[in-house]
Every structure is written in C-alpha cells, then in structure tokens.
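User: Okay, second chain of the day. Same drill as before: sequence in, structure tokens out.
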Amino acid sequence: MPMKNKIKQLVDGRGISVYQFIKETGIAPGTGYKLYNNPRHQPSPTVLGIICETYEVQPNEILEWVKESNKQSKITRQ
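Assistant: Same drill. Structure tokens below.
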C-alpha cells in the first residue's frame, strides 16, 4: 500500500523549523529530517504516535494513501 507522509506540510503550515519539530517531538534528528525531506519515508507507529500527541493531530493528517499506477502495482505484487 503506497503511502506518503505529510510532515513537510505540517511543519511548514505551523511555521516552525525542522529543528524545532525534532526538539518538540523528541524524535531522532535523522528520522525528523528524513520525514521532512522524503514524503515516501513512513514513520514507525511509535513515531507517528509521538507526532500525533505532540501536535494533537490525527494520523490521517500525517499519512496519506496514494493510488499506485496499474503498471507499478503489478510489478510490486509479483
């Protein structure tokens, strides 16, 4: 199931820096920067919970399902 994270939108929408996001959540810096810079990087359930609790948001505000193209879907499932 293809998912993308919306951390960049969350961080930018709140007008905070990635550094501040990392400090407020307490997640590892590498994880914070990966989530911000790579929408394909998915947070672990623990990190997702921390982000949701810190910013009082629902998981669907952090993750978004993206429809795969038929060609890509067939390749992945084989």
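DSSP finds five helices and two strands in the chain.

User: Thanks, on to the next one.
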